[in-house]
Design a protein that fits this description.
With 124 residues, the protein is of the alpha+beta class. The chain is built from 2 helices and 7 strands. Strands 1, 2, 3, 4, 5, 6 and 7 form a 7-stranded mixed β-sheet that branches. It is elongated and about 40 Å long.
Length: 124
């Protein structure tokens, strides 16, 4: 099974006008831009003033280690397990690994569900 590492920051998911007020060098700053919007996931303390919409109080964990692109179903298994327990997620993938966010109110329960499914949960 995989190892899960909780992240100690609390996050916000934002829609932003642009990224001019975002320091992309800060840890745990994730951006996504499409032809329709610009999104930002960041620690609550870093929410920019030009945010158009903000949803606060998300907590995150990382799947430890670099994940090979040939691995299939990692997010699917975790999201299915959490969905069975009525826990919604927001997933972010980087080159090396995946990050899963849940509402902070559901976070400890999410970790417990994964622990019961034999995932290793590291101390945060």
């Amino acid at each position: 099974m995989l190892t899960i590492k909780p992240i100690t920051e609390e996050f916000a998911i934002c829609q932003v006008e642009d990224y001019s007020q975002v320091n992309l060098e800060n840890p745990f700053v994730f951006t996504g831009a499409t032809d329709e919007e610009k999104s930002l996931v960041c620690p609550i303390a870093l929410i920019p003033e030009n945010a158009l919409a903000v949803d606060k109080h998300w907590s995150a964990f990382r799947i430890e280690g670099a994940l090979d692109f040939s691995l299939i179903g990692i997010l699917s298994k975790i999201s299915s397990l959490l969905a069975e327990h009525n826990i919604g997620i927001f997933a972010i993938s980087t080159y090396n690994t995946d990050y899963i966010l849940t509402k902070t109110a559901d976070f400890q329960r999410a970790l417990q569900v994964l622990k019961e499914a034999k995932y290793t949960i590291l101390e945060s």
